[in-house]
Amino acid sequence: MSAQHTKPDWNALAPYAGRWVAVVRERVAGVGWTEEEARQAAKRSRPKEEPQVMFVPAVEDFDEDGQPA
């Protein structure tokens, strides 16, 4: 993972609920049903960069900060 991490915008990631996403430069670079699938998809599109991989929970409610409730 890169040294620079920002809080994800969970509302923007809502279409990926229930899946793993790999983010590079604050943009989704890969998506998968497993962490490794998402990482590999990101590496295919951005091979020189290390993605931040996270699971997007299937949560309908978000708090005022846009974080899953």
Describe what is shown at a glance:
The protein is of the alpha+beta class.
What descriptors fit this protein?
single chain; 69 residues; 3-stranded antiparallel sheet; alpha+beta
What would your notes on this structure say?
With 69 residues, the chain is of the alpha+beta class. The chain has a domain at 14-55. Helix content is 16%, strand content 22%. It has one helix at residues 35-45; strands at 20-24, 27-32, 52-55. The protein has a three-stranded antiparallel β-sheet. The longest helix is centred in the middle third of the chain and has 11 residues, at 35-45. The chain is globular, with a radius of gyration of 12 Å.
| Series of H and E elements | EEHE
**Sheet with the most strands, sense and barrel status:** 3 strands, antiparallel
Task: Kindly state the percentage of residues in helix.
Answer: 10-25%
How far apart, in Å, are the first and last alpha carbons? Answer: 25 Å
Shape: globular
What does the radius of gyration come to? 12 Å
Mean pLDDT across residues = 85
Unreliable runs? none
What is the oligomer described by this structure?
Answer: single chain
State which percent range the strand residues make up. 15-25%
The count of β-strands is 3
Strand order within the widest sheet? 2-1-3
Structural class: alpha+beta
Provide a count of the helices.
Answer: 1
